[in-house]
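Proteins fold reproducibly. Look at a concrete instance:
___
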Amino acid sequence: MLIAGLVLAGVAALVHVYIFYLESFAWTRPRTRATFGTTVQEAEVTRPLALNQGYYNLFLAIVTAVGIVLTAAGSTPAGAALVLAGTGSMLAASLVLVISDPTKRSAALTQGLVPLLAVVAVVVGLTV
């Protein structure tokens, strides 16, 4: 189960790298604006905020990836702690999103479902 959790955590990390790209480099492009539901004006005004948020997503992905590598290398306590910190933060951010704006349920689900599954699988894998 731990391996399944690490694979799910890897998928979650990749999703967050993609979100980093969208928020940090493609924020004002039409497709990204459609994805996030922003106008040209809103995208321009919020560009610095999106850049910052994008980097937060990248850092969560990096923490998760380092945890996966450490766990795979046999440093299970440290690696699992990082995987759970990264994916747990991803999950928490998705909950904040849906609580703050219920119309963003779909985005929150995209952002949080795989991290939730990763957290559950890693915890189960560690307790078996």
Notes: The chain has five helices and no strands. The radius of gyration is 15 Å. Residues 10 and 65 are 7 Å apart (CA to CA).
